[in-house]
Amino acid sequence: MTETLLEPPRTVVWSRVCALSDLDVGWGEAALVGRDQVALFRLDGEEVLAVDNRDPATGACVISRGITGSRHVSGLGERATVTSPLHKEVYDLVTGACLTSPALRLRTFATRVVGGYVEVAG
After folding, report:
1. 3-state SS class at 21
2. Confidence at residue 11, expressed as pLDDT on a 0 to 100 scale
3. What is the DSSP-derived secondary structure letter of residue 65?
């Protein structure tokens, strides 16, 4: 007889970070969510994406200062990106995958906008 133990579902904790109006479209901002430095990027309207602010190539917390843009990814279409200000690696803001150095990856965080405020799952 095999017994399968299921872990209880993890409760998602949402942290209010800032007002949506505090974020400029196309620019990054850094925020502390729990113990994590997170880079927030407002794309359009109420769409905000969040990734780890720590550059996986160097360990420096600079991703929020990166250059935002987009790149066509085969099979996925046009993707929102950020380019690290240090070594110029390009990261997909949705998946965290590095498009220029596949061994590198940014951790991603779920976001939502509630009542005009940006919240990040941590």
Report:
1. helix
2. 83
3. G
Please provide the distance, in angstroms rounded to a whole number, between the alpha carbons at the two ends of the chain.
38
Mean pLDDT, residues 90-115 taken together? 97
Q: What is the pLDDT of residues 47-58, one digit of tens each?
A: 999 999 999 999
Amino acid type, 19? A
Task: Decide: residue 3, CB within 10 A, 0-12 exposed, 13-18 middle, 19+ buried.
Answer: exposed
Average per-residue pLDDT for the chain: 92
Q: Are 53 and 30 in contact (CB under 8 A)?
A: yes
Which pLDDT value is given to residue 121? Answer: 96
d(CA 33, CA 73): 30
Alpha-carbon dihedral angle through residues 82, 86, 88, 90, given to the nearest 10 degrees: -30
Degrees, nearest 5: CA angle 57-62-66: 95
- Listed in order, strand segments (DSSP E) in the chain are 14-19, 28-33, 36-42, 48-52, 67-73, 77-83, 90-92, 108-109, 111-114, 117-121
Q: What is the pTM of this model?
A: 0.88
